[in-house]
Write a structure and sequence with these properties.
- The chain has 131 residues and is mostly beta strands.
- 8% of the residues lie in helices and 47% in strands.
- Strands 1, 2, 3, 4, 5, 6, 7 and 8 form an 8-stranded antiparallel beta sheet that branches.
- The protein is globular and about 60 Å long.
Length: 131
């Protein structure tokens, strides 16, 4: 069953990140080379370490107490470990601990200010059923 992306939120420390317009959960695995002379010229690999991250994009809000610029930049500059959730209103939610590893704020002329950032997971990405 397809789900409307608007229904998927990214929560940090228990609250939805304000004014997001897009979010992407990335799950990856390294594949270290295991090729030998007996591989007949074909690359072979083994399953390596898994990693995950969540990218968020949105409209930049600069309010000191509730703005996403203060929130995301604060996580990065404080090097805070953040509990994050990639959360649909129903189905499977993914969650874990992550660090904010990048924040970019765009302010184009005569256009809306934007923000983007990446939470890089540390440790296991867990999942839970949400009803």
């Amino acid at each position: 069953m397809a789900i409307n992306g608007t229904l998927v939120l990214v929560n940090a420390q228990g609250s939805a990140i304000a004014s997001t317009t897009d979010a992407t959960l990335n799950i990856e695995m390294d594949a270290p080379d295991a090729s030998t002379k007996g591989s007949a010229g074909w690359a072979e690999n083994i399953a390596g370490q898994k990693s995950w991250s969540i990218d968020v994009d949105g409209l930049a809000t600069f309010d000191y107490s509730t703005g996403n610029v203060q929130e995301l930049a604060g996580y990065l500059t404080a090097q805070t470990l953040v509990a994050v959730r990639f959360l649909p209103d129903a189905g499977v939610a993914y969650y874990g601990d992550a660090r904010m590893t990048s924040v970019s704020i765009g302010a184009p002329n005569e256009d809306v200010a934007t923000i983007s950032g990446t939470f890089t997971g540390t440790g296991e990405l867990k999942k839970v059923t949400v009803s």
